[in-house]
Design a protein that fits this description.
The structure holds two protein chains of two kinds.
Chain A (H helix, E strand, L loop, with lengths): L2 E6 L7 H14 L3 E6 L7 H4 L11 H5 L10 E2 L1 H7 L6 E5 L5 H10 L4 H13 L4 E5 L6 H8 L3 E6 L3 H16 L4 E9 L5 H12 L3 E6 L2 H6 L5 H4 L4 H14 L1
Parallel strand pairs in A: 1-5, 1-6, 2-4, 2-5, 6-7, 7-8
Antiparallel strand pairs in A: 3-4
Chain B lengths: L2 E7 L6 H14 L3 E6 L22 H5 L10 E2 L18 E5 L5 H10 L4 H13 L4 E5 L9 H9 L2 E6 L3 H16 L4 E9 L5 H12 L3 E6 L2 H5 L6 H4 L4 H16 L2 H6 L4
Parallel strand pairs in B: 1-5, 1-6, 2-4, 2-5, 6-7, 7-8
Antiparallel strand pairs in B: 3-4
Helix pairs in contact in B: 1-10
Classes of the chains: A alpha/beta, B alpha/beta.
Chain lengths: 254, 274
């Protein structure tokens, strides 16, 4: 059975795209066929982690939403890019990027699109590409497309930082996910200062939100130096952070 | 005439609000009357730095844009309790901080998206507000990225003397910063400066400064290393007041000083932007 996993956060800058790309790589390492859709149409970014820029992207999610192509035509097989880091990687990874052309972003923001097409597209992708897992990288906040991707997800990871600015929005998002009856709901606490007691953070967050914490991810200097130009778990397979992300990946596909 | 400084970044979560709040505290400690506008009407969180709980907040920028209140109804005196600051770090005449928050209520955020609003309502009101509150400096914190919500930032730039671009050393920062610089230059913002935040100790700060100044043609005023103590505060307090002698506080002070001394409207008329 294939699964849809959404990675979301209420505020920007929490590390959604990074987490999505890393979980994707870990699942591919296990031999799975994984699709990644960048539904952050307003501020797309995950393509950077796969080493892609404007020149590489010929078709995008935008073209599908405008009826210019089928969604599978916008899927780029990025497996070979991951294999540069990890020769012999068994699975396969397809990326469906959002357009990064300023004009196209402006057009879709101005004109809007039929959100229902997203759901059809996701189902079509699972079928056409015979995916085991479809990962959805969302736009922060609670808009129509986010609600839709939460509603159809088998698993949802809500990412937050241990920061007062993140707390209220996160609790609203958790409530919404509960109402939408997401079967597997996890919180991920990211960029935790190394001076914190991680067990204590986990306990406190689980208590406060009454929701399971899938991972506590420390702030990492290596992650920052990599600066979105590569996928951490492939570059640092033995890093403790990778072990934490491995556990998160297992929880998400459980 | 009030000095207006806009804080903007290409990417969210890079520390705009932390910089704006702490800069406000330092300027106020020097005796200034400082205004702080949270123009991030969708995700703003400046209230948390001043311990202003959601329940204590009535009118906000969202309400004002929705024409539910007058401008002055949405400004709050959030001046820190200077008595709590050690005497050694206090200057004789402490000033004050006034905050116009963005709404923490989801329905107010949604209302702006649904009904739309006239941005001019706030930019037109700012000068009058600054006069009645007798502000020396007005700091505007914006939504990240150039998109619908950041129209507010663009309009603020028209009244701003200084744009502080906050960036980390991450790929999405680069393209976004270039776009923001272009827009600010087109709008003839007299002074554009960069502040680099959350950088790893593994980078050479001197080289980073030089390269960024060269790439974006505007000076780097300050460079903040990632610091766990700052992150550990979790936006719950003003770092510079809690840790007045900390090395990071000195970087904040340097920034506040630079903003004060560089911002010189006369000089900016003689120097064409770019």
């Amino acid at each position: 059975m294939s699964k849809i996993i959404s990675i979301h956060s209420f505020r920007g800058g929490t590390g959604k795209s990074n987490t999505t790309a890393n979980i994707t790589a870990l699942l591919a390492q296990r031999g799975l066929r994984v699709g990644v859709v960048d539904t952050d149409i307003q501020s797309p970014g995950i393509h950077v982690l796969f080493g892609l820029d404007e020149e590489h992207i010929s078709r995008s999610l935008n073209d599908y939403l405008w009826g210019k192509c089928e969604i599978k035509d916008a899927a780029m097989d990025v497996t070979s890019i991951l294999q540069q880091f990890k020769p012999g990687l068994k699975g396969q990874v397809f990326l469906i990027p959002s357009s990064i052309k300023a004009g196209e972003i402006a057009k879709i923001l101005r004109e809007g699109y039929d959100v229902g097409l997203l759901n059809d597209g996701f189902q079509q992708l699972l079928e056409d590409l015979q995916l085991d897992v479809l990962m959805i990288d969302t736009h922060p906040g609670l808009n129509e497309e986010t609600l839709l991707s939460i509603a159809i997800s088998d698993a949802l990871a809500i990412i937050m930082r241990p920061d007062n600015q993140d707390y209220q929005g996160t609790s609203v998002t958790v409530e919404v996910a509960r109402k939408l009856e997401v079967p597997n709901l996890l919180l991920v606490v990211n960029k935790v200062p190394p001076v914190f007691d991680f067990d204590h953070v986990q306990q406190k967050i689980e208590q406060t939100y009454n929701c399971r914490v899938g991972a506590i991810l420390p702030h990492s200097d290596e992650m920052m130096v990599l600066s979105s130009s590569g996928i951490f778990v492939l570059k640092y397979p033995d890093h403790p952070m990778t072990a934490r992300l491995e556990r998160l990946a297992s929880l998400l596909i459980a | 005439m009030v000095e207006c400084v806009v804080f903007h970044s290409a990417r969210a979560g890079i520390g705009k609000s932390t910089l704006a709040a702490n800069t406000a505290a330092l300027l106020a400690r020097r005796g200034q009357r400082v205004g702080l506008l949270d123009a991030n009407v969708q995700e703003g969180g400046l209230t948390s730095f001043f311990g202003l709980g959601a329940k204590a907040i009535g009118c906000t920028l969202n309400d004002f844009l929705l024409e539910r209140c007058e401008g002055m109804d949405a400004w709050y005196d959030v001046t820190p309790n200077w008595q709590l600051a050690p005497a050694s770090v206090m200057l004789p005449q402490a000033g004050s901080i006034w905050l116009m928050p963005a709404s923490p209520r989801l329905r107010d955020r949604a209302a702006l998206l649904q009904t739309g609003f006239r941005i001019e309502r706030i930019t037109d009101d700012l000068i009058a507000t600054a006069e009645s509150l007798q502000l020396d400096t007005l700091l505007i914190d914006t939504h990240a990225g150039i998109q619908e919500e950041s129209m507010l930032a663009m309009h603020s730039l028209a009244v701003a003397q200084t744009l502080v671009l906050v960036l980390g050393l991450d790929q999405p920062d680069y393209a976004g910063t270039a776009v923001a610089v272009d827009i600010a230059e087109t709008l003839r913002v007299p002074q554009i400066v960069q502040v680099v935040n959350q950088i790893s100790m593994l980078f050479d700060p001197v080289r980073v400064k030089q390269e960024l100044a060269q790439t974006y043609r505007h000076p780097v005023l300050a460079l903040f290393p990632y610091h766990p103590e700052l992150a550990a505060l979790g936006s719950a307090d003003l770092f510079v007041l809690r840790y007045p002698k900390h090395a990071i506080t000195r970087v904040f002070e340097h920034l506040a000083e630079a903003l004060l001394t560089h911002v010189d409207p006369l000089q900016s008329i003689e120097q064409p932007p770019g």
